Amino acid sequence: MAEREPIPIIGGTGALGAGLATRWAQAGVPVVLGSRSAERAEEAAAKVLTAVPGSGVTGLENGEAAKQGQVVFLTVPFRAQSENLNNLREALAPGQILVDCTVPLAAAVSGKATRSLGVWQGSAAQQAQEMVPEGVTVVAALHTVGAPTLSDTSAELGEDVLVCGDRKADKARVARLIELIPGLRAVNAGALEMARIVEQLTPMLISVNSRYKAHAGIRLTGLPDADHWA
Amino acid sequence: MAEREPIPIIGGTGALGAGLATRWAQAGVPVVLGSRSAERAEEAAAKVLTAVPGSGVTGLENGEAAKQGQVVFLTVPFRAQSENLNNLREALAPGQILVDCTVPLAAAVSGKATRSLGVWQGSAAQQAQEMVPEGVTVVAALHTVGAPTLSDTSAELGEDVLVCGDRKADKARVARLIELIPGLRAVNAGALEMARIVEQLTPMLISVNSRYKAHAGIRLTGLPDADHWA
Prior knowledge:
- Two copies of one chain form a homodimer.
- The first copy, chain A, is an alpha/beta fold.
- Chain A has helices spanning about 15-25, 40-50, 60-65, 80-85, 125-130, 145-150, 170-180, 195-200, 200-210; strands spanning about 5-10, 30-35, 55-60, 70-75, 95-100, 135-140, 160-165, 185-190, 215-220.
- In chain A, the strands form two sheets. In chain A, strands 3-2-1-4-5-6 form a six-stranded parallel beta sheet, sandwiched between helices. In chain A, strands 7-8 form a two-stranded parallel ribbon.
- In chain A, helix 1 links the parallel strand 1 (about 5-10) and strand 2 (about 30-35).
- In chain A, helix 1 (about 15-25) crosses helix 2 (about 40-50) and helix 4 packs parallel to helix 5.
- Chains A and B meet through strand 8, helix 9 and strand 9 of A and strand 8, helix 8, helix 9 and strand 9 of B.
C-alpha cells in the first residue's frame, strides 16, 4: 500500500488544529501542522507526539505545510482568516481543496462568542472561496466539533460533521478524511452557501455549553445508515 | 387532579400544528386547534380525532382558541405570521406565553425552502415579540421537528427541540409541554435572539432531507442527563 499523504493543518498550533492532529495521529494518519513560525509548528508537533507517541506528526511554516497534501485544513480564528489566506496565495495550487473551519464569532471583534458577525460574502467559507487562488475549491466543515473533546484522547466521539461545498466529489474527499477519526460522521449539508447556517451552530453550541457545563456536538437524527459518500 | 388546561395551536390546520396536536392527543393532553374559520378548525380537529379516537381535541376560531390556555403555540407559515399576530392582539392577555414556531424560509416569497429571509428584528421570533401585546412573552421552539414525522403516529421520535427565550421560567413551562410528547427533549438554547440561529436549522434540514430522502431532526450530543428544567 502506498504511504498515505499527510494532512496539512494551517493554524495547527491552535486548539482545533491540535485536537484534529491528535485524533488523526491516533488513527495512524500523518499530519503536518502549519504555523507562521516553523519553530512554533515543530513545538506543536512535539506536543502531539507526546500525546500520541510514534505518530507521524511534523511541523512546518504554513506555506510549506500547505504544499504537503492535496486537502488542506484551515483552523485559524476568524480574525486571522484573511491574513492566512493572503499568505497562502503562493502556496496553494489548482486542484487543492481548502477546508475552511473558521467561524465568524463576534469574539473576533471583542464581542460575545455566543454571537456572530455578518460576513459580506455570506459566510467565512464563502469569503475563503473568494480569496483562494483560481482552481482551489473550498469546502466548509468541522465548525461544531469541540477542540477540548478532540484533544481529550480518552473522550469518545459520537457526533456529526456538517460538510458544505459546491461539488460532491470534493466534499466526499473531505468526508473520507474526517471519517478516519472514529466517532465522526460526515453529513452532506449542501452547497458552500449553506455554510452561513452551519457556521452559526458554533455560537449556539458555545451558549449551550456554558449553560449546561458541557461540550455539546451536533447529531442529525433520521438519516439512513447507508454510506452517502459511496 | 385538576383537569389539564388545553394547548391552543394557532394555525392548527397546517401540517406542523396537526402533527403536534396528534402527538399531544396521543399523550392524553387536550388541544384546541385554531384556524381563521371555526369550521376549518373543527374539520382539522375531527381528523386528529380519527387518528387518535377519544382524545380531547377541539377546534375554534383563532382568537377564541388563543384564550383557552396560557401557553399558545403559533404554527403558521412565516408569510402569515404578521397577519396572525395582528389578529391576536385582542385575544392574547398579559401573562400568556406565545410559542413562535415560524421559520422565515425564502419560500415565503417564492424563493427556495433551503434558503432563508433576513428578518429586520433578527428572527421571526423577535418579530413576534415586537408584535404581541405588552406582558405577553415569546418563546421560540419546534423549528426542527418535522411535521411528517409528528403526524406519522407509528414513527418513534428521538430528537431535541431547541428552545429560545429571555426568561428561563417561561422556557421551562414550554419545555414541560414539549416533553409531554415522548421522544422529544427540550434544550435551553439561550435568549430569544438565539432564534436567529435556531430558525436557520430548518432550511438546512430541508436541504439534507431532500438529499438523503429522510426526515432529519437535531440532537445535541454531550449534554448531561440531569433534568435541566428542574
